[in-house]
Amino acid sequence: MRRRDYRRARRQLRRRYGTRTAPVVYLDDRYPGEGLAAAARLVYRYRSELAPFLLTAVTGLAGLFLHARHPNAWPWLIGATILGTAGIVLLGRRWLPRVIERAYAAAAELGLGTWLTLATVYGPGTGPLPKILGIGTLAGGIPWWWHRRRRARVQVERTLEAWPEMTEQVGLAGSRVMSAMVDAWGWRARIALRKGQTINDALNRLPALESGLGTRPGALRIEADPHRADHVLIRVLNRDPHAEPLPWPGNTARSIADPVTLGVYEDAGPTRVSLLCLHGLIGGVAGSGKSGVLNVVLAVLTGCTDVVLWGIDLKNGMELQPWARCLDRLATTPRDAAELLADAVRVLDARATELAQHGARVWEPTPQLPALVIVIDEYAELDDEAFRYADSIARRGRAPAVTLLAATQRPTQDAMGNGAVRSQMDVRLCLRVRERRDVDLVLGQGMLAAGWTAHTLDAPGKFLLSAPGLDVPHRARAYLVDDDTVNRTAARHAPHRPALDALSAQALRSLPNSAQRPAEILDAEIVDSAPADPAQALWSALLAAPTTGVSLPDLMTVTGLGRSWIYARLHEHANAGRAYQVTRGRWRAQ
Ligand SMILES: Nc1ncnc2c1ncn2[C@@H]1O[C@H](COP(=O)(O)OP(=O)(O)OP(=O)(O)O)[C@@H](O)[C@H]1O
Fold it and tell me: What is the pLDDT at residue 23?
């Protein structure tokens, strides 16, 4: 109905019935004063909305009283107004943290104080004073009624008033709200359960609670209170802080010993995890963001000069290829992957022997003695041989700092090669999974029942993280490192990548143990062709390069060393003006 038609209809109604249409309140007169009590209840219920009018009424009455009894009190009123305004500006930060809110409160105090002073001297009904009070009430009321946090607080108060009745309906009768707090995204509360009830009772009723509270589906989180088994913490997110992808803000870690910041939790806190001497497992359905998480990890670790990175990408290198210049080795076929893992076992063995000889327990990574992290995308595609090496690394690799970071869709025992790998994974990151039981598959037995509900994650990059010291199912979303950022970050970090330490490099050059090593032929080639002075061999190759330059794989062959070492030397030559990059990945001497 158009506005004009609506007005006409209202006029007709008024003419016909001689009354205005208005909300009808039915009162049944059971005892005198019940109407008054109902009105008082209504005023109490809407006290927040009515606050500007109540304040105006009190100020008006105060003006009447002071003008009649104490018309000479105006100097006191001026003093009180100035003190009150200054107090709000200077000391109000604790109650009103935002400047705009303090400014509003100070302006209201100044306005009402001034009006009261004038009303005390001249009388509240004199001249324009009543009009000023009326207009001031409306002008001051608008920001008050509009204020988002006030409205949210009122809504929470009303929700919590209805808590006992609501929880009775959803089957959690007897629980009480201990405290509640409104925040930027919604609100949180501490709930005391009836004796005998546990967090599992609350978790089992989560959808019913969402319905009872009238939230959107998926807005409610329930966590255990670490101090009381009969308390739970609930959090209602009116707005999803993870609704939009979060761009990667850049690297803050310089060492593998620094925690890697993967993304942010729902309370905007950073999601940090240490990967130092720990194996990691990333699980989730296709498209849940596993490669995205690996990108964040690589963006961070390639900036750390005390970790050498090897990659296995059995999607033909599709995911890890952009990082190739920062990876010391990259395997893209199952055979190469098995060779790579076999070599990792040899590094591990050499380091373990060295540690034992020096009576040390762990390998402390430094740029000269870097950790070795093997990043594996699509772990389930490895062959049996590779599974055996991975199993050995998973069991023995922590102390010598040779660790795995594996991503896979469903880490069943079959997919993980039936070895000990899954049980050895200390850091478990679960993205969206299709079935509830897959939660336990990725995170460990019993995690679903304990509230790790990864099957309800609803966007790529959202995850739950379990690691030493991280045992509460806080939802997080990984940063999104877009393709441009990957390329720029890889280019920036490539010149600073460390080479493997001499001991580990020597272990790779020494004659392979055929019982342990499947790739004797390749290794023998490296050993045969490995020059005594790789730096000199590199320089000779650059000098002898054709005008189109010599490729990186060729340089790796002539030096017998890895990508990082070669990049570091090439950039030294380039910085000294001795060599240059002819085209992408092809170099020659000046
Ligand atoms: N953190 C993130 N934030 C927003 N979008 C993301 C995030 N991570 C991944 N995505 C988006 O989700 C899509 C799938 O991501 P990704 O390839 O990482 O998934 P995956 O689990 O590795 O899939 P698959 O198993 O098929 O390789 C990508 O197109 C990407 O844009």
Answer: 44
